[in-house]
Design goal:
Strand content: under 5%
Mean pLDDT: 85
Structural class: mainly alpha
Low-confidence stretches: none
Number of helices: 9
Oligomer: single chain
Order of helices and strands: HHHHHHHHH
Number of domains: 2
């Protein structure tokens, strides 16, 4: 939560707005679902996601952590691995069809099993944040704080990438950035 008087960047506000809209879309798309079927929501979400429903894909990404507490997110939990891979593949398909929204990229960050993948998708999000920041009118100190926070986040995810994979990851970021413009 931001402290009183702290400015929140437009990219953060947009991310929350996208999340709220995705929640509204998901709720509206499920408004007429019978109560008996609600208990089977994950099955229905998977079916909708398999059919290409973006809202379902994003909802599954958001609920993956809730469905599997930290102790359940292990490489020996076949259900978790199946769900994680299903969600990841669906979100990658979103990019293939041109949906490079912040919500899709954020979902990919959250479900990526690989630190290099997390770096790629997080870097795309952070680059967008930098572009938005550069378009803002603010005092120099506020600008430097915001830019420093973005750069710090990038360094944090970069630190988890094996050194031999950084150049290839940065090339992939550039390719995706060109696709997602």
């Amino acid at each position: 939560m931001a402290k009183a008087g702290t400015q929140v960047s437009e990219s953060v506000l947009k991310m929350f707005a996208d999340q709220a809209q995705a929640d509204v879309d998901a709720r509206e798309s499920c408004a007429d679902v019978p109560a008996d079927d609600i208990a089977k929501w994950r099955e229905w979400m998977r079916q909708a996601a398999s059919a290409g429903d973006t809202s379902a894909r994003l909802q599954l990404a958001r609920t993956l952590a809730d469905a599997y507490p930290a102790e359940g997110r292990t490489d020996d939990n076949d259900n978790y691995l199946d769900d994680r891979d299903f969600v990841f593949d669906g979100l990658i398909e979103e990019i293939r069809v041109g949906n490079c929204s912040d919500s899709v990229l954020g979902g990919l960050v959250s479900v990526s099993a690989d630190d290099t993948d997390k770096y790629v998708f997080m870097t795309l999000l952070l680059n967008r944040g930098l572009a938005l920041l550069d378009g803002q009118t603010m005092d120099a100190d506020a600008y430097q704080r915001e830019r420093g926070a973005i750069e710090s986040a990038r360094c944090e995810v970069l630190g988890a990438v094996p050194p031999g994979e950084v150049a290839e990851a940065d090339e992939f970021v550039a390719e995706l950035d060109a696709i997602c413009r």
